[in-house]
Amino acid sequence: MLGHDRIDAETYHRDIVPGLLIGTHGKRAEAGLAGLDPLGLRIGTGAWTYRAEGSRLRVVEGIDPDAGCVVRLSPDAWTDLVTLLRTAAALAIAGDVHTEQGTVLDLFRWEPALRALYQGIEIYLPQGPELYDRHGARVDPAAELTLDHSDRELAEHFEATGVMRVRGVFSAAEIAALNAEVDRLAAEARPDDDRSWWAETESGEAVLCRIVYASERSAPIDELARDPRLVRLAGLLHDDLAASMDRMEGVSVLLKPAGRLKGLANIPWHTDCGLGGHHIMCPSVAIGIQLTGSCAETGYLEAIPGSHGRTCPQPTREEPANLPYVAVPTEPGDVTVHVADVLHASPPPAGVGGRRTMYVTFRPPTLFEQVGPGEAINDLIRSRTASELEAGLGR
């Protein structure tokens, strides 16, 4: 599995951070400072405070008395955070964030600025509900697209949005055959099988919410890696991506149960690299085959088009009106296509639930070089109960 040599925190803060602060990284970090109280980090035997002074980011040795959040990280955990091997959420779920003051949510709010400082990743800032492509032309994120559109038309739309819906890719007969395979796999799934995710109802009952590595036990699903329609869509922007069938959870099937659930059946705003590994797994492309279709009643994909390639802080309930927000209702046989690091969500169904979506994800060569068969960033999630996940994420 991927990893990094440990970075010495004292050397890094003494020799590296001052240069980052006065360069492009520091400028990018400043965009995410609004509303943040000072953050104290204890790393091994050292301690530093990150704080905004006017519009500038300042990092000083020691913990300031006015630090609103103070967290303690091991040197290895902090190395993972600096290199994006693991995000703050992954560290929290693993129990590697020890909060001395404030909550883990305060660390989450600081993360866009930290990513900008450490890795130079730009912070996505709302510019209103309109979306424009690189030529300055307005783009409709909800445009009706089909395979009859040219590669150029599809690629230009996808480059601007990072998420799109393509109508009528699979026939009714193909969808029926895939649903039959899902029925069989769901009937065989057990909470301890390491091939499924489970949520909990309010009464504590386990509910299946995802099947992973589905192609291991299904020849029709395995064939999707070579389906020319999916290969075409995955390669619109990068022609070196390949389906990750034997790693990163392979082909997964999202099952959307109804009701109020604990765990990760209904996933709030996130990116697919939200637990870590951005530098080796992006720009992956996830293609969601709509086995049942989706709407507000059954749950559907939501996204912030144009947020890919940057760190997009989670929007408040009011902010989507000021963002190029899109909900993606679908019919059986449609597919959704999204870049791994576009901000998106899988909210609870407004009604009966029941949505089924099969995801085939195409990944860059760096992923296959550093993540072996049977390994996945999400392995940590499958090893935690729904209650443990909720606690680690500060819910």
CATH superfamily of the largest domain: q2cbj1_9rhob like domain
How many strand units?
21
Name the shape in a single word.
Answer: globular
User: What can be said about the biggest beta sheet?
Assistant: 10 strands, mixed
Task: Work out the strand percent.
Answer: 15-25%
* Rg calc: 21 Å
The level-1 CATH class of the largest domain: Mainly Beta
Structural class: alpha+beta
* Count of discrete alpha- or pi-helical segments spanning 4 or more residues: 13
First-to-last CA distance: 29 Å
The CATH topology of the largest domain corresponds to Jelly Rolls
Tally of structural domains: 2
Helix % is 25-40%
So, CATH architecture of the largest domain? Sandwich
**Uncertain segments of ≥5 residues (pLDDT<50)?**
380-386
Mean pLDDT over the full residue set: 90
InterPro entries: Phytyl_CoA_dOase-like
Protein name: Phytanoyl-CoA dioxygenase
Organism: Embleya hyalina
Pfam families: PhyH
Please supply descriptive tags for the structure shown above:
alpha+beta, 395 residues, Nonspecific Lipid-transfer Protein, Chain A, 13 helices, ten-stranded mixed sheet
Give me a quick take on this structure:
The chain is of the alpha+beta class and 395 residues long. Helices cover 28% and strands 23% of the residues.
SSE layout and pairings?
Layout: H1 9-22, H2 24-30, E1 39-43, E2 46-53, E3 56-61, E4 69-73, H3 75-83, H4 88-93, E5 98-101, H5 104-119, E6 131-132, E7 138-139, E8 145-146, H6 151-161, E9 163-167, H7 172-188, E10 196-201, E11 206-211, H8 219-222, H9 228-234, E12 242-243, E13 252-255, E14 261-262, E15 267-270, H10 278-281, E16 285-290, E17 301-303, E18 326-328, E19 335-339, E20 344-346, E21 356-363, H11 365-370, H12 379-382, H13 386-392
Parallel strand pairs: 1-4, 8-9
Antiparallel strand pairs: 1-2, 2-3, 4-5, 6-7, 9-19, 10-11, 10-14, 11-13, 12-21, 13-21, 15-20, 16-19, 16-21, 17-18, 17-20
Helix pairs in contact: 2-5
